[in-house]
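Ligand-bound model needed. iron/sulfur cluster.
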Amino acid sequence: MELLLDLHPDAYPLEGFRRRQLLDWVYGQGAGTFDAMTNLPAATRQELEQTYLLNPFKLIETVRSADGSVKYLFTLQDGRQMEAVYMPYLDRKTICVSTMVGCPARCAFCATGAMGFGRNLTPGEIVGQVLAVAGGEDIAPREIRNLVFMGMGEAMLNYDNTMLAARILLHPGALGMSKRRVTLSTVGIARGIKRLAAEDDLGIKLAISLHAPDEETRKRIIPTGQVNSIEEIMSAAREYQDVTGRRITMEYTMLRGINDHLWQAELLAELLRGLVSHVNLIPMNPWPGSDFESSTEEQIQAFYDLLEARGMDVSVRRSRGRDAGAACGQLALKRPNAHSGGAA
Ligand code: SF4
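Prediction:
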């Protein structure tokens, strides 16, 4: 049965006024069933029910953290599992969504990478995370104003589905998000960065998970052959900025004794010279079985100070959900067969 959420709002199966009503039920009110759509004729509801699946998820675990963030673990129709994280910051409600079950990039410090690749999520399974989390928090889906494609998976390797999901998120008849509040994060897929640059009507923001300024360290922590060299990534980033004029966020997970040396801060400042960027230093979120630890507070501060002294725009992101053990992929990783389907 087709997932209704996989459709672009302009392709919804009703016309005019009825289509707007349907969209409002789905995205405005987060209706869980076609039956709840009481202003649609009964025959229409029945027809929709027989043709489309409305909710692709079953919620199986929620982990609430002392800082307010909430991790949701869902089972999909095929039994595979994936996560979304809700982060109710003081001034804005943010959701971090997954684009895949598992991830082929296999970053060595990441719990999702340790799962390997399960499958790509469909556009509706990506967008549906907003609806499911809103339902879990008892808020209207449109109250979630910020979204980051930073959960499980490498969005650029599920490019078409992620782009359609982004278009649904921004569509005024659907979730109506502001393009300035939607950020796509990539581990550095140069061809994807170039394609995104060409989607000029979309206008969402770009974050690149660089994590190291030198090839040797980067290859050690991001071993997948699908990832480009630093030179190729920087070339794509410059092209993106030339075309879009938008600032790029550079994500840098701080790994103790691996990528937190001051010579690497110097090299990073050198590498980013001339690019309008913001460097986000992220203390590693530890998970059982990981070979890596987060850098110490002192080392992070020293790294920060050096970048700032070189004129970089830099901040330290405090990972949310640390007390819940909520590193990306950790909930799914602890369940057997989570990415291969058939899991409980
Ligand atoms: S950090 Fe992101 S790209 Fe790397 S393995 Fe984890 S989910 Fe994939």
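The longest helix spans residues 123-137.
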